Amino acid sequence: MKAVRPVAAIIPALSAALFLLALTGCGNFWEPPGGNGSTGTTPTTTTLSPATTAATVGMADELTASVAPTTGTGTVSGTVIFESNGSSIGTETLSSGTTSDSYAWSAAATYSVTANYQGNSTYASSQSSAASITVTAASSSSSRTGIFNPATASRATTLVLDAANTWTVPASVHLHNVAVVVLRNGMVQNIDGGGHCVFYSGQVFFAKDSENPSSDSDSPGVYELSGGGYLAPEGTRDLNCE
Fold this sequence. Notes:
Immunoglobulin-like, eight-stranded mixed β-sheet, 1 helix, elongated
């Protein structure tokens, strides 16, 4: 006659088996809380609209992305990553379903540019169709002359140059931002000051191949121009500009 195993000995063994089953799962019986971090399920459509598809080296192109639900209505929020040939060139936040990024290419080539919406808890991620942007080198003989934004103007103008462009300044002017400045041997190479000054109220953006943009420690933000004169912050005095 076989010995009968006591009930008290069976219960712990059964509890251990059930606990092991709960850990290992049974047909996705259990999964950890918190989910897998995926985005929402509402489909979206992302549209990329470049300001131009034919740019020159150093010229900033405005890239605008719009994201909307594929069907129905709603305002999509979140971030968009802009990519050129698969590399990120900027990350921007949507506002009322749109955002933009300004980018200047430093080499002549054809670039495939996309806008990639990252999704959020409600909306699924999506990628725009690729825009083909052709960037060409500017003529080495190109130059610009002229005067704009006198001291009484709004100072909202941004000047954009590149390594192959020069700007001849006929009189002192007032700008907001100045780009793309080529600095070599401690002097701005692509602005011929002619003894005049270019004052800026915003920022100066330097070419990628420029030397380290350092200015006179006694006059921060002041740079000497080829042909004489200075690129200087608005309100700088005692420069003896013509």
